[in-house]
Amino acid sequence: MTTQTLTLPRAPRSWKKLAQPVALILIGVYCLAPFYWMLVSSLRRTSDIFDTSLFPQTLSVESYAKVFSGSSDFARALVNSLIVATVTTTLALLLAIFAAYAISRLHFRFKNVILAVIIATSMFPGISVVVPLLRLFSDIGWINTYQAMIVPSLSFAIPLAVYNLTTFMKQLPFDLEEAAMIDGATKWQAFRKILLPLAAPGIFTTAILTFIHSWNEFIIALSMVNNPKFQTATVAISKFTGASEFQAPYGEQMAAGVIVTIPLVIVVLIFQRRIVEGLTSGATK
């Protein structure tokens, strides 16, 4: 009995060479198209805001001027976003580093169950925790405060940070840490002088992801704060109004969206190499 092997026709090499850049271009266009349209719309005059051309007929910064000259106090809202995102990221990292170290490097019972519970808490819809927290914060006088936005945001930032750092620390070799302890280092010294420097790419990547998540947070900030003095940028954008209550100022909203997005784009571009290192190093060790 003879066996025959079917040979599938190979695609021409020219198509293979062409397919990869075409796919990358399509993905890039798909991802950047909304931001490009937001940028172009923000540079149109108010009278041209519904123009559908790919480029503004007349470049105008009218919308940007209105963003900062209106009653929304958008500059203050940007500062509030920076405060909330920075404090949330710092606290989440401090707690997550120790939690991830314990789960990934120490031996004790039920640590996988603990990790599963931590991750499961991040699966709750944000709106499901808003109502009970709103009642609690009203009773203790936390409404219209920074902590009313930071504490609930931590419940979503910490699981993300713990999961990322645990995955990264599990890949780090135990030998260096054990060798340091054999040479006389304490557990704390081995953690501080050996493990933390090795985990720096993962910590840095986690910090960036947590900051972006906190910077973009909307539902908690909208629910816990009704004083414009404490509103974050995302909430301020949603409350832009035109000449009348029912008129949407699309140009101002587009300009504010660009202003909010630019810091994140700059951070990602500056630290792009470290972010990629942090995301890929755990898979290559």
UniProtKB/TrEMBL annotation:
Protein's cellular compartments: Cell membrane
Gene Ontology cellular-component annotations: plasma membrane
Chain ranges passing through the membrane: 21-39, 77-101, 113-134, 146-165, 194-215, 254-271
Keywords: Cell membrane, Membrane, Sugar transport, Transmembrane, Transmembrane helix, Transport
Pfam families associated with the record: BPD_transp_1
Ranges of residues in domain ABC transmembrane type-1: 78-271
Membrane topology annotation: Multi-pass membrane protein
Cross-referenced InterPro entries: BP-dep_ABC_trans_perm, MetI-like, MetI-like_sf
Biological process annotations from GO: transmembrane transport
SUPFAM superfamilies linked to this entry: MetI-like
Family statement drawn from the similarity comment of this UniProt entry: Belongs to the binding-protein-dependent transport system permease family.
Name the record gives this protein: Multiple sugar transport system permease protein
Organism classification: Bacteria, Bacillati, Actinomycetota, Actinomycetes, Micrococcales
